[in-house]
Amino acid sequence: MKQTFDAVVFDMDGVIFDSEIKVIECWKEVADRHQVPDIETACRECLGLNREAAKERMLIRYGAGFPYDHYKKEMSELFHSRYSAGRLPLKEGVVELLSYLKEKQIKVALASSTRRQVVMEELQDAGILGYFEQVICGDMVTRSKPAPDIFQKACGELGVQPNRTYAVEDSYNGIRAASGGGLRPIMVPDLAEPTEEMQSLTEIILPSLLKVKEYLAQFIP
Q: Could you tell me if residue 14 is left (phi over 0), alpha (psi between -120 and 50 degrees) or otherwise beta?
């Protein structure tokens, strides 16, 4: 059997780490403190976006005078007080899948909208940084997901063709970015339920990373 792909590029939040629900919980506490309505809906609109794009979306929803930077700082401090130093839970099957890809000499990269300092700390604290040949972050590209820039840069850094690269994502914006970049998207839903659009943009939708491992194994000699 001939191998049909050369690399896998992973999103981080909601794919590698079970972090998105934790972020929303922290945002809810900050929002309750300041009487900000409907913050969960706002957070879900921001899934997959980088810092600047998320801020822009929040200001559209709450108005130009919304003190986003102040509230985001409160949320971040609360989040890191609870989940820093290796306390952020990994999603089921992360180590099994990454170990398998390494064993099979498949190239692996991370493409996260989160800024690089945070990404590197979280991967290092979890003991999984060494699995990734390249780590591309939201502050390393001009345009945020759903633009394809971050995935195109990941493929370029790995030296692989997008059409021979799988992208594992959980968010709508992430799937749109991967599809727009010419990669082969696999959706592993976290907070966002699959829609008809996601069905049309993905190669397959799977319930867990363990199922991703099973799926990819059929294409590896």
A: left
Same domain, 66 and 110: no
Residue whose entry in the numeric block shows the structure tokens 């099979």: 104
- Per the structure, the count of domains in the chain is 2
Q: Tell me which residue range forms the domain holding 148.
A: 7-18+90-217
The pTM of this model reads 0.94
The average confidence (pLDDT) of the chain is: 96
pLDDT tens per residue across span 115-155: 999 999 999 999 999 999 999 999 999 999 999 999 999 99
pLDDT value of residue 183: 98
Task: Please check whether residues 94 and 167 belong to one and the same domain.
Answer: yes
